[in-house]
Every structure is written in C-alpha cells, then in structure tokens.
Design a protein that fits this description.
By secondary structure, the protein is α+β, with helices and mostly antiparallel strands. The chain has two domains: 1-89, P-loop containing nucleotide triphosphate hydrolases (Rossmann fold); 90-146, no CATH class. 47% of the residues lie in helices and 16% in strands. It contains seven helices and four strands; from the N terminus they run ααβαβαββααα. The protein has helices spanning 2-7, 24-36, 54-71, 82-88, 106-111, 116-123, 130-140, and strands at 42-46, 74-78, 91-96, 99-105. A hairpin with a 2-residue loop joins β3 and β4. α2 packs parallel to α3.
Length: 146
C-alpha cells in the first residue's frame, strides 16, 4: 500500500492520519490510490476534480495522465468541465438528457462539432480572448466578424 501512496504523491505517514487531516486534493489522491491497489485495467472517474482549485486540479489531472501511460489504464472520465475533458480525453461522448448525441476524437468534437447541443456547450466555454473568439465563431458560421 505504501508504494501506491507514494505513486500518487503521498508518503507513508498518510496511513496513520485521519481523513479530516487531508486536503481535498490529498483525499482525491487517496481515492485514486485505493482504486489502483487492485490493479484495474479501467478506472472510472466521475467528476474527479470538480471541487478542487485549479492548481490542485492540474496536479490530479497530470497524475491521472501519468497513471494512464505508466500503467496502461483506460479511464472513463465523466465531467462537465470541457477544458478538463479536452486536456485528458482522447475520445469523447457528448450526452444530453442521458443519451449520446455525438462521439468522436477530441479533435473532431472540439474542431468541428456536428450536433447543435455540442456546439452550444462549446460556445458556452469562457474564453480568454472574447474578441478573437467572436471572430473565429463568425468564420465557422460563414460570415465576417463585426
């Protein structure tokens, strides 16, 4: 168990601490370690970083990406945060009301979404460059930017 804790970035002293002594990010690492102990081929992650601040989200996402590569894990990653999904996932399935409306590679979905719901989701993502994004959106829609 100590080797798995160390693999997720915690030391052996974590074994002797109570749950209340851990931060949210550390608790998430413990949950990942618990899942890895049984050497799974598939890891199901349902909103694994939604309650974490951005820097801790990045650490957990990098950990998952590393585990995927090092251990040959497949990860079923369920999330509402499209930036997080874009970072971690190779293939996506977009659900609306519990039904799949679109699926494809990350580049297919983000580069040229086909379903109106997917398009609306992607349009709702905040951008750092709103003017540039409006211009790109206008080009995608076949008109000139204002």
């Amino acid at each position: 168990m100590v080797d798995v804790l160390e693999r997720v970035g915690l030391d052996a002293s974590a074994l002797d601490r109570h749950p209340r002594a851990f931060s949210g990010g550390q608790r998430q690492r413990i949950a990942i370690a618990r899942a890895l102990v049984v050497k799974p081929r598939l890891l199901v992650c349902d909103e694994p970083v939604s309650a974490l601040d951005v820097s801790v989200q990045a650490q957990v996402l990098n950990l998952l990406a590393d585990m995927r590569t090092e251990l040959g894990l497949s990860i079923l990653f369920i999330a509402h945060d499209l930036a997080v999904v874009r970072y971690l996932c190779d293939r996506l399935v977009v659900l609306k009301d519990g039904r799949a409306v679109e699926s494809g590679t990350r580049d297919e979905i983000y580069g040229s979404p086909r379903h109106p719901y997917t398009q609306a989701l992607l349009e709702a993502v905040p951008r750092l460059d709103p003017a540039g994004e409006r211009a790109r959106r206008a080009v995608r829609q076949g008109r000139r930017a204002a």
